[in-house]
Amino acid sequence: MRCTEASKALDAYRSGELTRKEHQEISLHLAACPGCAAELAGVHELAARIVRLRSRAPWDVFRHVESQAADRFAAVETDLGRLWVGFNARGITLIDPGGTGERLFLRSYAKRIGRTALQDELPPSFERAIHLAVAGKARRDVCVDLSGLSSFQKAVLDILRKIPRGEVRPYEWLAREAGRPRAVRAVGNTMAHNPVPLLLPCHRVVPASGGIGKYAFGSAMKRTLLEREGVPLEQMEQYTRSGVRYVGCRSTGIYCYPSCRDARRVKAGNRVPFGGVREAMRQGFRPCGHCRPQ
Predict the structure, then answer these.
(1) CB distance 286 to 253 below 8 Å
(2) Which of 221, 246, 265, 290 makes an SS bond possible with 217, Cβ 3.0 to 4.6 Å?
């Protein structure tokens, strides 16, 4: 190892940020290089002096930083019940059903987000977004803070926002769109732990076998939300009972998920039901470019 390489890594060596292999290489170099060993001693001395320079910030500065950076929470009354909402300067961080109570919400917030929250008034834009979502008119441009989630979870939730209002998709569709077609269970876990339901519409994800599936706020609320968004639940349930998973159009030769806006425009005489992808493809149908079935 050259001295220039060792010199760049001395502070990381001091603070223990290197890998075991990197630490061993630096140690061997320091044992053989008095110059770098002396430089490391200087780094230690500088770090100690910097610590002694630390001082308490003025109270008004502390309060200003706290007001900008701290997490907050508030209760929102909707026609579907009370909701607890956590938020910060970056966006909404958590939405929980109001039946949990304030103490349980704060406990859940600390466990899921890893921070405490202070009670405050919800910004008008956030409150308006929640009321629109409850009314079945959720917008895609609401700011949310997903900083504690993994890159895969963020990717899945970002794709989730692209499911059109009034339509649903199966879990396997989300996994495929995320580039992980076999990660259906991981997608299900992401939906179950979605920190911002309503705004990130996990209620639009349903089992491939039919039915509406589970939901953080209960199946009844999930059904209400889907109905308010215009999802044709009764028709979809009839398809499920008949073993229909896809709907094709004779005139275009395209097949879709039953809730797709294109499938719902197909006239009864042109509609062709399919129980699976192979059946549709054997009859010469191709997948819809909007809902992108398998």
Answers:
(1) yes
(2) 221
Domain ranges of the chain: 3-52, 58-231, 232-294
Alpha carbon separation from 141 to 92, 156, 281 (Å, rounded): 12, 17, 37
CATH class of 58-231: mainly alpha
Output the pLDDT for position 78.
94
288 classed as catalytic: no
* Residues 71-130: tens digit of each pLDDT: 999 999 999 999 999 999 899 999 998 777 899 999 999 999 999 999 999 999 999 999
Select which of 202, 249, 260, 288 is catalytic.
202
Rounded to whole angstroms, how far apart are CA atoms 194 and 190? 6
The rounded distance, in Å, linking the Cα atoms of 38 and 46 is 13
Q: What is the pLDDT of residue 291?
A: 96
Q: Are 120 and 72 in contact (CB under 8 A)?
A: yes
Q: Quick one: pLDDT at residue 17?
A: 85
Tokens of 139: 């917008």
CATH number of this structure's domain 232-294: 3.40.10.10
Supply the pTM of this predicted model: 0.75
- Judged against a pLDDT cut of 80, whether residue 62 lies above it is answered with no
Tell me the sheet residues that pair with 42. Answer: none
14, two tokens: 């001091």
Mean pLDDT of the chain, nearest integer: 91
- Rounded CA-CA distance 97/112 in Å is 15
Token pair listed for 191: 């939906």
